[in-house]
Amino acid sequence: MRYSQMFLPTLKEIPSDAEVISHQLMLRAGMIRKLTSGVYSYLPMGYRVIRKVEQIIREEMNRAGAQEIFMPTVQPAELWKESGRWNFYGKELLRFRDRKDSECCLGPTHEEVVTDIVRNGVKSYRQLPQNLYQIQTKFRDEIRPRFGLMRCREFSMKDAYSFDIDTVNADLSYQKMFAAYNRIFERCGLKFRPVEADTGSIGGSYSHEFLVIADSGEDGMAYCEGCGYAANLEKAEIARPEEQAVDVSSFLTREEIHTPEVRTIEEVCAFLQVRPENVIKTLVFSADGVPVAVLVRGDEEVNEIKVKNYLGCDILEMAMDDMIQAAAGSPRGFVGPIGIKCRTLADYSLMNLTNMVVGANREDYHLKNVNFERDFKVAAFADLRVVRESDPCPRCAGGIHFARGVEVGHVFKLGTKYSKAMKAIYLDKNGKEQYMVMGCYGIGVGRTVAACVEQYHDDNGIIWPLAIAPFQVIITPVNMNDQDLAAAAENLYADLSSQGVEVILDDRDERAGVKFKDADLIGIPLRVTIGPKNLAAGNVEIKNRKSGEINILSVEEVKKFILGAIRQL
Ligand SMILES: [Zn+2]
After folding, report:
1. Do 219 and 323 belong to one domain?
2. How many domains does the chain have?
3. pLDDT level of residue 17 (50, 70, 90 thresholds)
4. What residues have a C-beta under 5 A from ligand 1, the ion?
């Protein structure tokens, strides 16, 4: 492509509404333009990258045995009512009525549609497994769309759905997708990590997120170098500490202390001259309307997702004042475990601790020198707190480290959630009806591109990996009015193009400095500069955008160099 003919509206200034680097650079490099809040058009440069990522995804999905389909964006409400998600899904589901007054929605995901297709097409175990995928436009009416392609409302997504006869086979389908995802992100040239994740609103039993490592990423992960354990911060487990023998003789006499208006951990510590590690924080939750007390060390935070999963409840929220008053007999701020009238769980952080401070369940009072067993019992010790960077690895003796990333893919084991709700049934070997066991697997295509920019950029612009660059090579003659330079540039351009290399010829009548700046901004991996001094010796200069390495090579050598680099993809 000739630069002079390209639709490539680059910007010199950083657009004021773009907060993150990928959004700024994709706007500046003429890749995307905003149509309305959270809705973007891909311009030629952006769409070429999108198509390359899609192609890698397609090849690896096909290689893993998945079959491509294409499902509609507009979906009837009936299917969503059947699965139970019509009411459960929040306002991200854009609902509307058509001219016949039928309720519809724009698909934020396609579990319902694909389950409907498969339940109508599969009768026997002989027809399973199946894995169907599509690369299609999704709409989620995000309350606060931001960060360009990172959190938008309309976006391109690859979504795949597997159907198996049982959980053993569903695990195999999951592993195939897990392996395919690793290959996809490797081929895109990204540094990434699969991490264990919570199953969230889609539901199901098990899941992994794929995070592209970037300091600017919204998602945190905890990982261990030793054994490779990695999980997102919501999910990251904490090992159960060794139980130590209790030395009852160390228990001090329990005391009730008047602590007027002393409610928070900080206030308690200041008033009683103790450290947060010596205080038990008692939080009362409503689990499907039933009060549950959760105890955690004063310097730790309760992880509500862990509590919710432990209890297996549908809705977990902080208890309201009346529920706290009924369970504890005291207002918020003075609640403690002794005599509380509800199920009580304690986090592992409290194991082996003695002589603690707790709320007295009496307004304006706390208790000192409180001990497990002597003063109160708990239903169980469990992993209920937020992980810290200093925590030991839950799998080996190593230490936990934190890193940040951008979530680009997610693989779920769905189990029979949808097949039960929508009666996706097959007949097994014995002619008995069984529910299909499902998995679902998503990749945000635009998000992968944005994550790539977050990972690979410098002050001058984007640095595309060769595999997904919009063009692989840019030829920059320093002066198009010099006939020798122009002729050499045209010849190289024609030659590389004819061999399938994706080349831009910067044929603009601009200063070399301007051309170099634009080439860096749009991030083309290899730049061939044709200048009078090198050309007089039959040479050109080739520069690697990522490493900055410069080589002076003959025209023949530069062709070999470029073709060699592309062949390695
Ligand atoms: Zn480990």
Report:
1. no
2. 3
3. confident
4. 224, 226-227, 229, 393, 395-396, 398
Q: For residue 196, how far is the Cα from the chain centroid?
A: 11
**Does residue 32 lie in a domain region?**
yes
Ligand 1: centre distance to CA 195 (Å):
13
Residue numbers of the domain that contains 355: 248-382
Token pair for 257: 């202390």
- pLDDT above 90 for 206: no
Distance (Å, whole) CA 424 – CA 534: 69
For 468-482, the pLDDT digits (tens) are: 999 999 999 999 999
- Asked if the structure places residue 63 within a domain, the reply is yes
DSSP strands (E only) in 103-247: 103-106, 130-139, 154-164, 192-196, 206-213, 219-223, 230-232
Q: Which residues are 96's β-sheet partners? A: 104
- Residue 568 makes CB contacts below 8 A (sequence gap 6+) with none
pTM over 0.85: yes
Distance 552 CA to ligand 1 centre (A): 47
CA 548 to each of CA 72, 458, 517, 543: distance values in angstroms, whole numbers, following the listed order: 46, 11, 14, 6
Q: Are residues 428 and 542 located together in one domain of the fold?
A: no
Q: Please tell me the distance from the alpha carbon of residue 243 to that of residue 245, in angstroms, as a whole number.
A: 7
Pairing of strands 74-76, 154-164: unpaired
How far does Cα 298 stand from its chain's mean position? 30
